[in-house]
Structure formats: structure tokens, C-alpha cells
Design goal:
Order of helices and strands: EHEEHEHHEHEEHEEEHEEHHEHHH
Bound molecules: uridine-5'-diphosphate-glucuronic acid
Number of strands: 13
Distance between the termini: 34 Å
Strand content: 15-25%
Radius of gyration: 19 Å
CATH topology of the domain at 76-179 and 222-252 and 303-319: Rossmann fold
Length: about 325
């Protein structure tokens, strides 16, 4: 199997590449702007990496789509702070650049495994979210946060339509708050990371943790190792069971409020040597979403995946509880 991973150096791409090189005999062709996460992959005889930009290196991308059996286009801005700061960059990269890739897959009849997102369900009040029946509910235009959800939703619809009209082989997967090693750089100061790495960064720098909107909102978190297990099952596609399907990939049992997550993380860091007094050194404060991220921000209050499709068709289910997953992630960053 020849697998093309665009964005091979990102959080998902790097974790997937290192797992596959250890456990499968596939050739991986990868492109990314950065290779900082790929120390354990670079130099491997089956890892063919090119540093580049999918927007500029279009010829390389097209040639490799032609050459590979399956394509995982993971390049995207997937960070809410940036949806609000630079919505057009999200549209250009997440939608436009990826549309080109989808079209090449149609032309060369290549299987595409596309990262949709839990964000497509937006503010739908259902719980859990069902891939087949839940409505996709977003806010008004001035709430720029939704440009990510809309960009991904539109590509979901385009891929589905190419599947029906032209027989494009596809699978859509929807990550629900995946986290773990290599998510974001926790050593950088700033307030633009996804919540687990943001809170860890705040704790390590002994800065206040900010609960945006008060912290009662909830997410279901999934450890990256479980996520990679699901992705591998999708790529392997036993009996064609992933073909034409959409999979929520998350853990409905690992739900926590954002305030609860902050408490849990402080407790876990406090167990590591040198951090025994961390609870008294980090304050928990609150801020209004529009003040913290900007006027275009709007939040999701609850987001639970229904995972019956993944259980039935992939034989997958999550195995790492939230506490354990946080412990392993924190240990990775402190090592
Ligand atoms: C995320 C991102 O859009 C994507 O990474 C992804 O596609 C998707 O959801 C997913 O992984 O399911 P969200 O869950 O809102 O969206 O992302 P975070 O930035 O991790 O925020 C989670 C919650 O924590 C939000 O309610 C946010 O307001 C809150 N938060 C975040 C804080 O209270 N304080 C912070 O410092 C950061």
C-alpha cells in the first residue's frame, strides 16, 4: 500500500506515520511545512518526506495522488482562535486547497479519507450527534468561528456528491476533541492553542487558566492512540466497510466540562516532581468568549458523538479513559 499523507508533520499525521512505520509495511509519502514532529520517522526507508506547501507545490501533490493508493489530506487550520483571527486563511486552506485535492482524487480514481470535524454539528442541541440524521447548525455570518465548520461541511457534501456521481471512493471521519502528544507546542506562550495544550501551557508557565464563558461547556475528549486505531481501521477498510461512510471518532464516555478539565489537569501535573505546589501557583479565572477570542467567537455547549457506526463497521471502540490519557500526555510533554 502506498499512502499519501498531506500534513504528515501535524498532530494527526505525525502520530499516524510513526505508528504505521512500526506496525505496517506500507510506504508513506508525506508533505508538510514542518518536520519537527517527525524525528522518529525521518530517515526510515519507507517514509518518503518532502518539506513543502500544498498551495505552492501543486505539481508534487498531483503526481503523488496519481502514484498512491489512498490519500489523507490532513492539511488544515483547526484552531478556533484562528477561525476568528483569519477566517479567509481558513477558507483558502481548509476549503480551496483541499478542493483541488478532492478533484485530483476524482480524476485519478483514488480513495480519499477526509477529515471532516465534530464542528460540522455546530450548535445542534441533540446529544449524541448522529452522522446520518443530526442537523448541522451554525451561527450568523458575523460569528466568523463557523467558517471552519462551513468549509469542512461543504467539502463533506462535495465529496459525497462526487462519490455518487463519479464513483469517488471515500470515507469521512469526524474527530471529536482528539488530544495527546504533539498536539500543540505547550512551551510557547500565547492563547491560541486547543484547550488541553492551552491549559497545560498555562500550568507549566504558572499563568492563569482562563475558562472562556465560565467553563460549564462540555467536550468529549479522545486520546490520540485510540484515534489512530480508528484511522488505521478506516484505511485498511476490511470488506469495504468504510466505503462511502461517515464516522464520528470520539469517546462519549470521556465527557468533561472545561472547568472540570482544568481541575483534573492541575491535579495531574501536581503529581510530577517539581510541581507539588502547582495548585497554589495557578489561578483559574473566567472571560467572555468575545473578549478572549474576538467578536466573531461563539461556543458549543455540549458535543457528544454517537459512535455506533465505528463500532459496527470498524469494530472500533475507545479504550483509554480521560484521566489516563491526560496523564500520558502530560508525561510526554514533561519528559
Ligand atoms: C475544536 C477545534 O475546532 C478543532 O480542533 C476540532 O476540529 C474540533 O473542535 C474537535 O477536535 O472536535 P473546540 O472544541 O471548541 O473546537 O476547541 P478548543 O479550542 O479545544 O476549545 C474547547 C473549549 O475550551 C471551548 O469551549 C473553549 O472556549 C474552551 N477554552 C479554550 C477555554 O475555556 N480556555 C482556553 O484557554 C481555551
Amino acid at each position: 500500500m502506498k499512502l499519501l499523507i498531506l500534513g504528515a508533520g501535524g498532530f494527526i499525521g505525525s502520530n499516524l506515520s510513526s505508528w504505521l512505520l512500526k506496525h505496517r509495511d506500507w510506504d508513506i509519502y508525506g508533505m508538510d511545512l514542518n518536520s519537527g514532529n517527525l524525528a522518529d520517522c525521518l530517515g526510515h526507508p519507507r517514509f518518503h518526506f518532502t518539506q513543502g506547501n500544498i498551495i505552492i507545490d501543486k505539481k508534487w501533490v498531483e503526481e503523488h495522488i496519481k502514484k498512491c493508493d489512498a490519500v489523507l489530506p490532513l492539511v488544515a487550520i483547526a484552531n478556533p482562535a484562528l477561525y476568528v483571527q483569519n477566517p479567509l486563511a481558513v477558507f483558502e486552506l481548509d476549503f480551496e486547497a483541499n478542493l483541488d485535492i478532492v478533484r485530483h482524487c476524482v480524476t485519478y480514481k483514488k480513495r480519499i479519507i477526509f477529515p471532516s470535524t465534530s464542528e460540522v454539528y455546530g450548535m445542534n442541541p441533540d446529544s449524541p450527534y448522529d452522522e446520518e440524521t443530526s442537523n448541522l447548525v451554525v451561527g450568523p455570518i458575523k460569528k466568523e468561528r463557523w467558517i471552519y465548520s462551513c468549509s469542512k461541511q461543504m467539502l463533506d457534501r462535495v465529496i459525497y456528491a462526487y462519490g455518487k456521481r463519479d464513483g469517488l471512493p471515500f470515507t469521512l471521519f469526524r474527530p471529536f476533541n482528539w488530544f495527546g502528544p504533539r498536539l500543540d507546542n505547550v512551551w510557547e506562550e500565547g492563547k491560541a492553542s486547543r484547550v488541553v495544550s492551552q491549559f497545560l501551557s498555562n500550568i507549566l508557565h504558572k499563568r492563569d487558566i482562563v475558562l472562556v464563558g465560565g467553563g460549564a461547556q462540555k467536550r468529549c475528549f479522545l486520546y490520540i492512540d485510540d484515534a489512530i486505531d480508528a484511522l488505521v481501521r478506516i484505511i485498511e477498510n476490511k470488506n469495504g466497510n468504510a466505503d462511502g461512510r461517515i464516522f464520528n471518532i470520539g469517546d462519549p464516555k470521556s465527557e468533561a466540562s472545561i472547568a472540570g478539565l482544568a481541575e483534573m489537569m492541575i491535579d495531574i501535573v501536581g503529581v510530577f516532581p517539581g510541581f507539588e505546589n502547582i495548585r497554589s501557583q495557578v489561578k483559574i479565572t473566567t472571560a467572555i468568549g468575545e473578549e478572549h477570542y474576538g467578536a466573531g467567537y461563539q461556543d458549543v455547549q455540549k458535543r457528544v458523538p454517537k459512535i455506533d457506526n465505528a463500532i459496527q463497521y470498524l469494530g472500533w471502540k475507545p479504550t483509554t479513559g480521560l484521566q489516563d490519557a491526560l496523564r500520558q500526555t502530560i508525561a510526554y510533554y514533561l519528559a
